C-alpha cells in the first residue's frame, strides 16, 4: 500500500521512475525503511495513505514519509524512508538532478517530518534460523530486480509458521544494501542472540554478498 501511494505521488510530481528513465536513464531505489505500527489493519477496513517527500541530502539521498490512517483519522502505521537514484544501464547510484532537488523549496516544515533512522542495522550475530530461495520473475519490479516489499517478506520466512501466526511485528527497520536479480540463489537468516525478548535481527544474503538487513520487534496477536 505504501509503495503504491509513493508511485502515485511521484507521478503527480512528474518524478516517477518511468519518467526519470526516459529523461535521464535513472530510477528510484529504496535504501532504508523504518515502519512502526500501533496496530494492524483488519480485513475490509477502509484506510488512507498520506505520503510526501521530506528532504534531500548531499544531492544523493531523498526522504519520504508515510502515514496509514484509519476511518477515525488516526495514524496506525507510519514509515520513514530513504531513496537513491540508480542508473538503469550501469546499475550504479547517481546524483539527484537539480530539477528534482528543487522540489525541496515546497516541502512541509521539518517539524512535520518523522525522525529519520540513522543507526546501522547489523546482520544476526548468530543466525540459528534460515531458509533458501530463488528469485522468481513475479518478484521483480520495473527496474528488473527484486522489488523492495519482497525483501522483508523473505527475511520473515525463517521465523516459521508458528511464530508468524501467533505474533505481529510492531516495528521493522530495513536497510537495502544490494539488488537481487532473476534466478539468484539467496538465503534469508534470522536470530535473536543477545537481543531482548520478541526482537530479531535478519539478513538476506547471496553467497558472501549481504543484500539487506532488518531488525524487527513483535507482540502477541492477543496483546493490546
Assembly level: single chain
Average predicted local confidence, pLDDT: 94
Helix count, per DSSP?
A: 5
The CATH topology label of the largest domain is Thiol Ester Dehydrase, Chain A
- CATH C-level of the largest domain: Alpha Beta
CATH architecture of the largest domain: Roll
Q: What portion of the residues fall into strands of 2 or more residues?
A: 35-45%
Q: Give the termini distance in whole angstroms.
A: 24 Å
Task: Classify the helix fraction into a percent range.
Answer: 10-25%
How many discrete structural domains?
2
Q: Tell me the major beta sheet.
A: 10 strands, antiparallel
Radius of gyration: 18 Å
Overall structural class, as computed from helix and strand content, comes to: alpha+beta
Q: Which characteristics define this entry?
A:
224 residues; Thiol Ester Dehydrase, Chain A; 2 domains; 10-stranded antiparallel β-sheet; 10 strands; globular
Report what the structure shows.
The chain is α+β, with helices and mostly antiparallel strands and 224 residues long. The radius of gyration is 18 Å and the shape is globular. It folds into two domains: 2-112, Thiol Ester Dehydrase, Chain A; 129-220, Thiol Ester Dehydrase, Chain A. The chain has helices at 2-12, 17-24, 98-101, 150-156, 160-166; strands at 26-37, 48-57, 61-69, 75-87, 93-94, 129-134, 167-176, 185-191, 199-206, 209-220. The chain starts with a helix and ends with a strand. 17% of the residues lie in helices and 40% in strands. Strands 1, 2, 3, 4, 5, 6, 7, 8, 9 and 10 form a ten-stranded antiparallel beta sheet that branches. Strand 8 and strand 9 form a beta hairpin.
